[in-house]
Amino acid sequence: MNGRLVGWMMLLMAALLPPVTARAELRVTAVAEPWQPYMGPDLPQQGFLVELTQEALARSGYKLDVKFVPWARALLLVKTGEATALLGAYHTSEREEFLAFSDPVTSVQDVLFARKDSAISYRSLEDLEKYKICVVRGAAHGKEFDEARMLHKEQVSNREMCIKMLMAARVDLIVGPEDVTTYILRTSYPDYYPQITALQPPVQTNALYVGFSRNVPDYPLLVAAFNDGLRKLRDDGTLARLAKKHGIALAGRRGPVN
């Protein structure tokens, strides 16, 4: 094969490929907080929410890159447009200003945790006025709880710190997603796990979304692509298969801490 023919073939192949800018647009950069058992850097395929998002976006030709960072940092990155998507977000009116939310993926129950020897119980938020409650900075737990001014909330950077403060009696309660907090207790603090109980009633049952930054170009197309992919995953059974693979109960409870 002579050099001229090779040259023409290379030009033809280059012409058939999409432009570099177009190919770059098919890559989505997402951020997330380590949120086991739903997602985390050490989980298989980085967890249920990551694999689900990859599969949903892949149906429209998008590739997904995920970076795990603290929650407050994740919010900042999508707010400024440095990241395209935020995985595992609850919907709030404040976040609506900088995030376009997908259709809900599943739901998660937020509860209060207390030391068993505290004998704390409650029926309404008003019953909690005298207690110190540890919350993760930037996290949402439902409109009623988030806007309850009478509650004494101690903000920290992560749930592990909340657990340590609870066991050191620096706070009386911690609030968080039941599945996630239980996972942390079982895997990272097995000695603490039998000493902590989840209180009823739940603080809130929250739908779980993927949020797309309003500060990136064509974000409506990304939302539409994800929603279309999510619908297809539900219809063809892939969503249920992924949930079973990762041990996730879709829109259901995994049981309280005992």
Automatic annotation (TrEMBL):
<dbReference type="InterPro" id="IPR001638">
    <property type="entry name" value="Solute-binding_3/MltF_N"/>
</dbReference>
<keyword id="KW-0732">Signal</keyword>
<dbReference type="Pfam" id="PF00497">
    <property type="entry name" value="SBP_bac_3"/>
</dbReference>
<protein>
    <submittedName>
        <fullName>Polar amino acid transport system substrate-binding protein</fullName>
    </submittedName>
</protein>
<feature type="domain" description="Solute-binding protein family 3/N-terminal">
    <location>
        <begin position="25"/>
        <end position="249"/>
    </location>
</feature>
<feature type="signal peptide">
    <location>
        <begin position="1"/>
        <end position="24"/>
    </location>
</feature>
